[in-house]
Amino acid sequence: MKVAFQFADLQAFLWMDGHGPYVWACYAITLAGLALLVLEPRFQRKRFIKQQNLARRRAQGSNER
Amino acid sequence: MAWQWFHRLGSPKWFYEKTAAWLPWLGFISVTLILAGSIWGLAFGPAEAKQGNSARIIYIHVPTAVLAMAGYYVMAISGAIGLIWRMKLSFMVMKAAAPIGAVLTFLALFTGAVWGKPTWGAWWVWDGRITSMVVLFLLYLGIVALQGAYHNQDTADKVSSVLALVGMVNIPIIYKSVDWWYTLHQPATLKLTQKSSIDPSMGYPLLLMILAFYLFYAWVLLLRTRVEILRREQKTNWVQDIVAKG
């Protein structure tokens, strides 16, 4: 098993004998999908904590009145 | 005594606290392995003899498809545990697994279509494998929709668990589709019980990517389940403490 860089130069690596656009499109959309899976729960968590704090402040406000 | 771990595992608070320590590890290791496997597959693995460089799509197409199916088992079995033992936490895992599975199935279908164009000459064919993957995608979307359709969370959990279990018949169909309806999609090249028909120079980076995607799946499933725990346990003191800390 030989492991070596398979392309003559960077341009050949990006072009991939014409298959480049297909290959890179796949990797790009997968990166976007995986990033979405990681980031979305973080946003949801932030939103949840914000909402809870807002609700708590409102509840305290009505107690004081 | 033997059941103690089971009950503790079913406690959302225990689960939330325990998994906090795993997250950075799972994140770091899975991202590193995905990067390493991608670079290996894209730049250092050989081009395929007949398909050329388009075959480099295999390093993401197969792992997303494998996890789309494995994730369905996670979702359906969590739903079953919830139904049988009334374990709250496993319903939360089931709910968290649905959108992740939908994204992975979409990625498998998308990368398959883009791979199909230079290889088969067509973006899309309604062959057995692709059609059953579309059904999988619709099942995932169905669970997401059912979870949003009921005001009563308990009803939503039960109904979506039943749908998830019924939909499980689709998984062996996807798996065997390339053998039953031998059309355009190539049969499996990585095999557990026989000699694989893929060369090790492509097989190793592919195995690395599959392992990396399993770890990644565990990571994002935990992230999502933990948010769901906070939402459903929002009235408890321990969640309110977390909220107060920000």
Radius of gyration of chain B: 20 Å
Mean pLDDT across every amino acid position of chain A: 90
Instruction: Describe the oligomeric state of these chains in a short phrase.
Output: heterodimer
What profile does the largest beta sheet of chain B have? none
Briefly note the structural class of the backbone of chain A.
mainly alpha
What count of domains describes the coordinates of chain B?
1
SSE order of chain A, one letter for each helix or strand: HH
**Strand composition percent of chain B:** under 5%
Number of strands of chain B: 0
Radius of gyration of chain A: 25 Å
Q: In which range does the helix fraction of chain B lie?
A: over 70%
Describe what this molecule looks like in 3D.
The complex is a heterodimer of chains A (65) and B (246). Chain A contains 2 helices and no strands. With 65 residues, chain A is mainly alpha-helical. Chain A starts with 9 loop residues before the first helix and ends with a helix. The mean pLDDT of chain A is 90. Chain B is mostly helical. Chain B has one domain. Chain B starts with a helix and ends with a helix. Classes of the chains: A mainly alpha (65), B mainly alpha (246). At the A-B interface, α2 of A face α3, α4, α5, α9 and α10 of B.
Secondary-structure topology with pairs:
The complex is a heterodimer of chains A (65) and B (246).
Chain A lengths: L9 H6 L4 H45 L1
Chain B lengths: L3 H6 L2 H8 L2 H23 L13 H28 L2 H33 L7 H22 L3 H14 L3 H11 L19 H33 L4 H9 L1
Short key terms for the protein model shown above:
heterodimer; A: 65 residues; mainly alpha; 2 helices; B: 246 residues; 76% helix
Summarize the structure.
With 65 residues, chain A is mostly helical. Chain A contains 2 helices and no strands. The A-B interface holds A 1-7, 13, 16-20, 22-23, 25-27, 29-30, 33-34, 36-38, 40-42, 44-45, 48-49, 52-53, 56 and B 27, 34, 38, 40, 42-47, 52-54, 56-57, 60-61, 64, 100, 103-104, 106-107, 110-111, 114-115, 117-118, 200-201, 204, 216, 219-220, 223-224, 226-227, 230-231, 234, 240, 242-244, 246.
